[in-house]
Design goal:
By secondary structure, the chain is of the alpha/beta class. The protein contains 10 helices and 9 strands.
Amino acid sequence: MRILFLLFSLTFYLPGYSQRSETVYRTKGDSIQNYYKVLIPDTVSKGLLVIIGGFCGTPIDVMQETKLPETAVKAGYTVVIPYLVDDCSTIDSKNLYQTRLESVIPEVIKSYNIPKDKFIIGGQSLGGHRAMFYTEQAYKANNEKIIKPNAVFGVDPPLNMKRLWDTFTYLLRINFSEISIEESREQLRRFRIMYGGSPSQFPKNYEVASSYYPDAKDGGNAKYLKSVPVRLYCDPDINWIIENRRGSYATMNATDLSGCISQLKLLGNKNAEFVTCLGKGFKPDGTRHPHYFSMLDPEEFILWANKLLEIK
């Protein structure tokens, strides 16, 4: 059944400046998931920036962690922050997120009169992986309904689901950090449901689900980004990982991110960047943590985006 667009929306003005913000709920009676926040510039839109939060990350969470949305809308971009699947209470074993995202993009472009050829997508953690995967499918599929981004970015996203399984297995085994133990136990449970079991049992399922898979030819799905500008941000604070998680470089997302960029460069991508943000990751309360959106510099990002999209 086709999901009706703009079944219900709330509109208000953002405090401090004149841009409007709308929250659009796509399923009648459901305000928990399948919705998105739109930040609307007070000028003609220069382009679309889609920002996806991490695991269970709502639009409000995203706006608390980074000033990128408000910086982008002030610069003239229409900003969309989706929350299409409630990760906290559901397991997206059918990749419903991808299907919903594919339908959201053209609807937003049409509804908010956004230029079709000025589109960047990205996100933090799981959101970065989802942005990468969406972009890969857009360039892989011969389907005009999947709007192709001009560029994609990720802020410390896990890209290789096999490596992530190995990391969770290791953290559970060493039994060091309570936070790591709880997260690892829950994520391994989810992986068993989503992929059928372990990578050794179902290697193809892990390859298909990964946005970068070093065991596959040309990096698996990553090969579809060989002509797409890609930015992967990372705060590779190995000492923090050692002291707080008893991990290593092998347990860090930096392993996937650096490998993916190297693979893209091998494929001839001259616009693939590994952006090092050592020491710049912090929680909204100021606590040091190298896995937060705060590592991205919003002002520098907009300069990059404007240059890439030829926006003055």
